[in-house]
Amino acid sequence: MFESLKTQSLEEISRVTDTRALEDLRVKYLGKKGLVTAEMSKIATLLPEEKKAFGAQVNAVRDEVTKLLDDKKEQLEESEINARLETEKVDITLPARPQPEGKIHPIAKVMEEITAILSGLGFEFRDGPNIEDDYHNFTALNIPENHPARQMHDTFYLPSAPPSNLPPQAGGGFSSPLAGGIKGGLRVLRTHTSPVQIRAMENYIKDGAKPPFRIFSMGRTYRSDSDMTHTPMFHQVEALYIDRGVNFGHLKWAVNEFVTQFFGSEFEMQFRPSFFPFTEPSAEVDIRWGDRWLEIMGCGMVHENVLKNVGVNPEEYSGFAFGAGIERMAMLKYNIPDLRQFFESDLRWLQHYGF
User: Fold this and answer.
1) Predicted local distance difference test score (pLDDT) of residue 45
2) Does this model's pTM top 0.85?
3) Which of 70, 107, 122, 275 is most deeply buried (CB count within 10 A of its CB)?
4) Angstrom distance (rounded) from CA 255 to CA 331
């Protein structure tokens, strides 16, 4: 019986001429209801002394059929590639086809708008590395070691030793992804742009400067998540203001100005109590979208531990911070339904949503 099954599979596989038909044969023999799978299911009905010999025979047949299928697949794929190479030729002497004028990507457009708004409000742009150390990404921001954000399922961790082929850093700028040094041991792809604020305040204090500090940061961030509203890489903007006597009223005014200038005055806005390790008190900001409220950003008064970690006296100074996802802002303002489309490089999509 097993010999006839092997002979039958060999004959059918040898006659196949395309990969789709080959996949049908894989299902026929090795699928959940396949011929070989059916034989393997008989093992449970045999006597104990019969199972070993029968199982060995079935496994041998399965391995042989699997090898036949894999070898045939490799052969067919190579033949298909060679056929395409023969037929899909490009005449490089032909003149280039005229292309329509390019468009600005919605992310770039929104980042320009945000920069104009925050600069107009007196905030100064600061940049930082995409590869961060554990200290600046978590510890300095008052995020405890047992916080879910530190877990592997949320954060992309990297080997602790820096690559040996990185170019030397010059001029004190961020010329390499490891600029600023590794203070905290573990390295991560930054999960938010808040580490930029930590580094900026550290540099201010190191240079002998004192508040007021009024900065904003904007760029790529990374988290292990992917669906219609989340991607492993996305963009954030965060603003920070530190000075004497800063209170929650100042925060509400700044957020209201930012949201109104970006979305327009027709949008209704509300603050909802929330929790973030680096701010206290904390809130989330919603805008009314049709008949429902949609969250657009988080905000709060900078936690005193964060101020202490960068060398600012919380008894003398206070401050606020707010941050938002740039893709979320673009989706709401320009009615873009799926976050993943931002990164699919579809020219038709860009022609429709570009500027």
Assistant:
1) 84
2) no
3) 107
4) 19
